[in-house]
Each structure stands twice: as structure tokens, then as C-alpha cells.
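Hey all, quick one. A colleague (J.T.) asked me to put the 1,6-di-O-phosphono-alpha-D-glucopyranose job into the tracker so the inputs and the C-alpha cells live in one place instead of scattered across chat threads. No bug as far as I know, just bookkeeping. Sequence used:
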Amino acid sequence: ANMSDQFAEVNKHSSQHPKPPGLVLQYGTAGFRTNAKLLDHIMFRMGLLAALRSKKTQATIGVMVTASHNPEEDNGVKLVDPMGEMVTPSWEGYATLLANAENEDLLAALKDVIAKEEINMSYEAKVFVGRDTRSSSAALSQAVLEGVSSFGGLSKDYGLVTTPQLHYMVCCQNTQGKYGEASVEGYYNKLCQAFLKLLKHASNCTDDQKHLSLDGANGIGALKVREMEHNVAKELQISLHNDGSTGKLNHQCGADFVKVQQKAPTGCEIKAGERCCSFDGDADRIVYYYSDSEGQFHLLDGDKIATLISTYLKELLIQAGLNLNMAVVQTAYANGSSTRYLEETMKLTVRCTKTGVKHLHHVAQEFDIGVYFEANGHGTVLFSKSAEDKVQKLFDNPNNDDEMKRAAHLLLNTIHVVNQTVGDALSDMLLIEAILAIKGMTVQQWDAIYTDLPNRQLKVKVADRRVIDTTDAERRAVTPAGFQDSIDALVKKYPMARSFVRPSGTEDVVRVYAEADTQENADALAHEVSLAVYRLAGGVGDEPKPL
Ligand code: G16
């Protein structure tokens, strides 16, 4: 269709997806996210934007309908760029622009993007669409599809998939299958085969070692575990809880709940010492935990996962005789003990970025091997092209001794088990399970690598969270004036303390993080900083109470 026909179509359909006048939404940490009732026009418009991005890049683009860790009544949308990564920041600006254009200004806003990006409108857009299990997701993903087709684009609806599965499909499609086959089956085959090959290096696994208790957050991850588990059942026996059959999505369960509350999810009977993990609502995050014989809860979060993976990789690189530079990328939420351990004991490069996997991903790409994890369990490992080539070359070399052969085989299959496009709970789980089995390591031994500093995360409601602006990878607040000085003064009161405050990009709250020498002190500091937020940044509702 020519350009004026395309615009006529857009006009016709956009009237069926009207924007509530005056509503303003921002593209946040991971796309738009708010109550599902407010999102129909956003979805339609993100379908339009994805079509434009596809025309611009002449590649397939992904759109995932999900609000991940948010409550069931919310929804959201994430855009996926050609290599499977989050959409590039300059286009987030266009997303916000389109989202907030009043109905009569939409065409002009679209034309603006087309002109600025010099988009060739005759290219036929291709968009992959996926959705999570929320009750609102089916209708909202229809709105995305309508947006794509209004611009004459082709779309493929993958239906119910995890967010990282959709990222994977986009990458497979745009690498002409080099990264894998762009189907859910292809995804399971690639990951599970690599997992089983890794497990060949694990000797004498006990039944305990093979058993994992999994909390599916009553979301899409649970469905996908069910689909996948038969492929690996010989080596991994999963007891699935919170599979969505009765409980509510993310309610008192899931990775975010477990991480923030530092307690086991409801809906799981946990035996002492048993290895457990939780996915979040779209299965891009995972955290592990166990409860000891005294009933004490132990969390193994993204920092512990990054430590386990980077330790394992470093050992393999030494055995393989490969000189590759490796770094771990974290955010301000990383426990101070983890950073110290990685830098001082492991002698690894550690970098800190703003919250949001897009930021971590970008920094991880600067290294041969970039292990990135947010403390909340969102992360993966990136291998540069040259790192992959070196591993492959070593693997193909017939003159290796046995230790090198083993290391090369492990490295190669580690690369294959990892979803390098984005954090992926299923893939991370397989990698972690493989590492523990290969090392013959229990969850308790893993936990003992270093001891977390006691910490606390709180949320504070304010009238407008944008009054808080941060710098230095969100570790310091620059506004409101004098606010950081108050935090500094509070932090000084406690030994080994650290605290920071930042506006959430996925929920309408300000997040507070504090750590200190004891749990009492971490709790007290978090409370005092919350009060400072409430008083200096326009708190609403009741004043925060002590824990
Ligand atoms: C998203 C992002 C994560 C981020 C989290 C919380 O996760 O992908 O990188 O850590 O939101 O962000 P914020 O603190 O800004 O609310 P998910 O799993 O909810 O998509």
C-alpha cells in the first residue's frame, strides 16, 4: 500500500483505540506499565511503532504484552530490537511521544518519526508478538496486532510465551536461524540438549541433587516449565508449585515477592534444606532459596547467581587456557558483600549501571564474557563473537589434553544453554542446576561463598516520583535540594551502612534500599530514609511506620 493508504488505515483503526484525553504515560524501566484498563491505545500505538521500527531496521521486531512482576490487574508492553535486545533508547523517546499524542495529533506524531528516521515506508514490516497469562493480555495483544496490520505489516502471534522466549524468537529470526530455530520447540531443544550435555560432566548425582522445588508465580513460567520438563526429566526432577491452577499471579509468590520480602512464597511446602527457586510473572527473573534446620530462610539472589556463574566460568577459562576478559555487571541494589567478594577474592572487574537490564546488557557487551545480574534475579551471560570463536576453535582442536577437552566442551555447551538476548528464568535455572551438579555443590555450599550484608527494600508513595532525580548509577540523589545530605547523615549513624533512593520505572512508587551490619540497623536505616522521602519528596497517605 502507498503511504496515504497506510495513513488512512491507521486513522480508521486508531479511532477504535482512542486515548483517554489528558492521560500521560512514560516508557519506563521496561516499557509502559500501568493498570490494564488504561492500555488499549498504548498497545495499538506500540503495534504501529514496532511496524515503523521494523521498516527502519528492515528486520523483525518483537512486542511482548506483560507487566512481569506487577499485580494481575496491571499490564504493560516491552519492545524487542532485532538482535533480541531491548529497544534502543532513542526509540523509547518515540514510544513516549506516540503514547501521549492526543487522538487528533497521532498522525502528525507518526509522520514526525518517519521523517526524523527517514523510514522507507514501502518495506513490509514484520513483528513477532507474545503475551503473558494475565486476563487482559489476549485483548491487548490483539490491539498490538491491529497496529501492525494498519501499517500493512505482517505479524506472527506466538500467543502465550515467556518474555525471554519472545526475545529469543526475534534473534533467531534475524540471524536466519544461526542463533537457533524461531519456535518454542526449537528453544526447548537447544537449551535442553546443551543442559544434558553439561550434565554428562556431573558424576553420581543423588536424588536430592536432582530435585528442585519451583514456584511458578502462577504465571507463564509455570506453563512453560510444564512444556519443557520432560526433556530434562532424567537429570532434573521439578516439583512445580504456584502453577496458576488456583492462585493469583505474583500474589504472595514469585521472584519479586521472595526477594523483597525475604521469605518463602505461599503455596509451597518447603522441607528443611531443600533447594527452591521462584520465577517472576513473565519468567525473566529467578531467585533461589532454602530454609535451614532452624527454619531460618536463606535467599540466593541475582548477586549470588552472578557469583556462582562467574566463578564457574573463571575456573573453566583457566583449565581451557583461554585468556578472555570477563566482567560482572551489577546495579546499586547489589549487596555490598557480593561486590567485595567479586573484586577482592575473585579479582574480577565489576561495573555498576542504572537499574534496567538494557543498561546492564549494554555494559556487558564491552567484554569477552559479560555476566550481568540485577540483585532481583534478572540477568544472563553475554559471550562476544570472538570469545565464541575461541571456544569453538579449542573444542575442534584434536591436540588438547583431557582437562582442556572437558573445559572446552563445558564452555561450548554453557554458551548454548544461555539465552544471550535477555535474562531468562528457564535458561538461568538450567545453567545453575548444571553448575551445581557439575561441581557437586549443595545450595548451602553455594550460599556460603560469601555472607550477604543484612538489607531492606521499601516503597514510599509520593505525589510525583519524578521530583527525585539521581546520578552515579542511581547511587546519589541530585533533587530535591538537600535530600542527599539527609540520606548521608542517616547512613553515617550505622556501621557498614549504605542507602539510596530512586523512583521506580515500573510502579508508581519511590524505592528505598538500605544495608548495614545487622538486620535491625538495615531496617532502622531503611525506615529513616523512607521518612526522609516522605517528608522531603512529597509523600502521600500515612507516614511510613517502623518495621
Ligand atoms: C523490570 C526491569 C528490571 C528492573 C525491574 C524493576 O523488571 O526489566 O530491569 O529491575 O523492572 O524496575 P524499577 O525498580 O524501575 O521498578 P520486570 O521483571 O518487572 O520486567
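Adding what we noticed when we looked at it: The first helix runs from residue 3 to 14. The mean pLDDT is 96.
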